[in-house]
Design goal:
The chain is mainly β. The protein contains one helix and 15 strands; from the N terminus they run αβββββββββββββββ. The protein has one domain: Jelly Rolls, CATH 2.60.120. The strands form two sheets. Strands 1, 3, 4, 6, 11, 12, 13 and 15 form an eight-stranded antiparallel β-sheet that branches. It has a seven-stranded antiparallel β-sheet with strand order 2-5-14-7-8-9-10, with no helix packed on it. The N and C termini lie far apart (about 50 Å).
């Protein structure tokens, strides 16, 4: 019996480790490699040399109190976007950003942009959030899928996440604790590489804050 005990323990331990390995999430953080990450913890200024910016007249899009502040102070609708200057040529990418709504919900949309051939966001894919809907679109407005969601709250922080693996596109809006509020998915193979960034626009008086922008590959 004593001779059997080590063998039995070995089997139990091996089986336990096997279960632990098989039970992991396919989007486990350990499997992703960070290419670029920015928490904006620096002095109030523009976003810096890691970004190509497109800023509309009459809007603010710059670091303020260690976040990126978007504010539309003009009439009409103004939009700003920031693209990381590095070209990402990888079939599997994950983008994420935190955003905080202001006292109004006039943004249209808050978005993560991926695989754009330039830094304007005209091409490639977009995971866009409007107050009542998640949208995956391509090439500046061609909707691939939409998902209704409960109204987003004012003065609240959320996480927007966009995962592209080959031709599979999946988007999430999450609480800051990581709980999924809504999920959307589709497939498309139009774009395979490009620039990554984030963007927003809104009517006069709209304020949105961004933080913790991250690009990962695997």
């Amino acid at each position: 019996m004593k001779r059997l005990l080590p063998g039995i323990l070995f089997i139990i331990i091996s089986f336990t480790l096997l279960l632990a390995g098989c039970g992991g999430d396919s989007d486990d953080a350990a499997s992703w490699i960070t290419v670029f990450e920015d928490n904006f913890n620096r002095s109030d200024s523009d976003l810096g040399s890691n970004y190509n910016l497109k800023i509309e007249s009459g809007t603010t899009f710059q670091i303020e109190s260690q976040e990126v502040k978007y504010y539309n102070e003009s009439s009409g609708t103004g939009g700003d976007c920031a693209f990381y200057t590095g070209f990402i040529n990888n079939p599997n990418t994950r983008l994420s950003i935190r955003f905080t709504t202001g006292s109004d919900l006039n943004f249209d949309p808050i978005a993560l942009n991926a695989r754009s051939s330039d830094s304007s966001g005209i091409t490639g894919y977009c995971l866009a959030l409007i107050p009542s809907m998640l949208i995956i679109a391509k090439d500046d407005g061609i909707f691939l899928n939409t998902q209704s969601l409960s109204s987003i709250a004012t003065n609240t922080t959320y996480i927007l996440e966009f995962i592209i693996e080959g031709s599979s596109l999946t988007g999430y809006i999450k609480t800051t604790g990581g709980d999924i509020i809504a999920e959307i998915s589709t497939s498309d193979s139009t774009s395979s590489s490009g620039y990554m960034g984030f963007s927003t626009e809104g009517s006069i008086g709209t304020t949105v804050y961004f933080d913790d922008f991250k690009i990962e590959i695997r």
